[in-house]
């Protein structure tokens, strides 16, 4: 058995007889097929990886038969197909390299979310703190200036994800087309009911009922606007995704509520008017930290005296958020450019400093998001042939699977959470 570090020579990318992953199309995925060549960083990455997995409940298997990890026979297996390429990517790109190496098939596993969960559970301690600080300074990529969320930058960032294809999202989302955490009732695993319950939960926190005039920031595909209109409300809903706006209008017409809902292609900063309630579901994550004061001040400005805001936001612990600000991660590069997940503390601070609003009620749905993501991933993989028929390739399949499993693992272990928050004015107007 050869136990020499695999990263001392230039990595070679070739197909494995056991794991046939097509080479990424250079026109679609420029530069992805060829791993970087950074021997020094690769050696450091390999040493840190070996040190980290020794105590994790996983099994890492090398091509020559070497095994690492503290996992037993039922633990998830990470099979390194091309160790040299893997360590070079990891050394040069850290977390970006880890995800990219899965996309190209440098490593594989039979159950991705189960494998990523122990990594997520120890993410803050896998690498010694001193090396984490050094890595953030010298190895971690920083957010590109062109992805800053100006009005134009936000439109481009949203276009890159939400305008991929309405048909793609319809393939793995449930019939409500809700692309956010569901809220499962006890004893139920029905995703449609969970999404309907989530929507009602947000509308309840905003006090939406007959006669309400509601502003929604972030239309999605119209599920929440439809439900608000069915409650007897009048809705103005804003989106900067042309593809979403088109399908949302079709769905509102089909639901028979188009006369009560106005869909506007408009940034939240361009909103005007005064509303009984404002609702926004998992949109703040795309705002960007420098624009949080503007976002919350906008909510305050648009809300009538005595009105309420129903806000749903993915969150992360404040200390981790502080460390992560400015980082450019795999998720930024391939899924959600320009965003930052806030902490509850950051939300509270922005409310105190820039608004007359406060959090009056809160509800955590973190474990429900893990279940929601598991549903999406299972459906996406089961319907892959349909997705492929839309023109998406095998590299995209592995990218999307990694994205869903990566997020699921984060919610499983509490590295990520999601809150429904009811915001109200601190003082009577």
Strand content: 5-15%
- Uncertain runs are 1-18
Distance between the termini: 75 Å
| Nearest-integer average pLDDT | 88
CATH architecture of the largest domain: 3-Layer(aba) Sandwich
Oligomeric form = single chain
- Could you say what the CATH topology of the largest domain is called? Rossmann fold
The CATH superfamily name of the largest domain is: Vaccinia Virus protein VP39
Number of helices: 16
Encode the helix/strand succession as letters. HEEEHEHHHHHEHEHEEHEHHHEHHHE
Overall description:
This protein has two domains: 39-138, Nonspecific Lipid-transfer Protein, Chain A, CATH 3.30.1050; 146-425, Vaccinia Virus protein VP39 (Rossmann fold, 3-Layer(aba) Sandwich). Helix 10 crosses helix 13 (344-354). With 429 residues, it is of the alpha/beta class. The chain has 16 helices and eleven strands. Helix content is 44%, strand content 15%. It starts with 38 loop residues before the first helix and ends with a strand. The strands form two sheets. A seven-stranded mixed beta sheet has the order 7-6-5-8-9-11-10, sandwiched between helices. Strands 2-1-3-4 form a four-stranded mixed beta sheet. The model is unreliable at 1-18 (pLDDT under 50).
